Model the fold of this input.
Amino acid sequence: MACSNCGTDTNGTPKGCKNNGTCGTSSCNKLTTFDWLANMKLPQGQSSMPYAEVSFKNGRKEFFRIPVNITLHMGDIVATEAQSGHDIGTVTLTGELVGIQMKKKKITTESADIKKIYRVASQRDLDVWQQARSKEEAIQVRAREIAIALRLEMKISDVEVQGDGSKVIFYYTADTRVDFRQLIKEFAREFSIRIEMKQIGLRQEASRLGGIGSCGRELCCSTWLTDFRSVNTTAAKYQQLSLNPQKLAGQCGKLKCCLNYELDAYLDALQDFPKMEIKLKTEKGVAACQKIDIFKGVLWYAYEGEWMNWHLLTTEKANEIIKKNKNNETVTSLEDFVGILEKDETVEYENVVGQDSLTRFDQPKKHKNKNRNKNRNKTPRNAR
Done:
């Protein structure tokens, strides 16, 4: 995700938004919300929303109460209240849309869990914050070494140091319950700092780390997808996809979230289709379903013993035969109900420039082989 200011210059070099990854359009952030009310004024007598959405490392967002004497804008770096000390984050949303986001996440304005913003970050706050962020990579490497030494079945995927450097949050993934009491002692002895452990799922891990999917675009979970719904193999079966785990699994190792995107359209289209397990009984023999085309509304059936000869039936004809079989009525054969599949119209593309060949300006190649043959046939003068 990037705004128009993050494009390239005339000579191809990246320009950058010059705002540390946060633009006025707020389109450089992960899981961002476009403020379409930013240029609109409030009606007279109505005060602005006294809450702001603040983003931290890897898309972690929280809501904070804005003091009366502070005016904040999107992209401001602020010092916020934390459980111990203060944290540094970036304002990603202000105004009336904050109330909509809080309602969406079921957070009430009267909640006592909403902390407040202290101030706009000073240069000293930024220096301490940058110094704390620079330690995260080394802490993560050392933490993984300690976890491996203790033989714990867990993976420390990310480390976040609080803005004032007083606390470290370790994000880890594990398939089973992990007893990390000894691990916390080792961390406290090694880093001499307050430790907090947070277990996340594999989908949340991919959302925090980000990446490029098999479609060539950024992962949905790290750009716009906020709720992770369960995905199972039945979604692939309804869409007639091969159950290949390597193709259906995403970077998190779970089934891709995009399997649910078009599932409702397929379910609506399959309402008129008979079940593939139902066989058609005719006087010529029993026919079984071999293949279906969901959006064209057709099925292919083959007689038992004649598996190479397929007969095309529409959903109406197949349901008609099934209804007659339920009433103990038999039909003569499938050939009486066979339909014709309409062919797709092929568009013939023409040259709109003038029906000229693209190679009309190319010079013809000289045939060197003919000249060589002529030279071979000539006899030298000395031989005469």
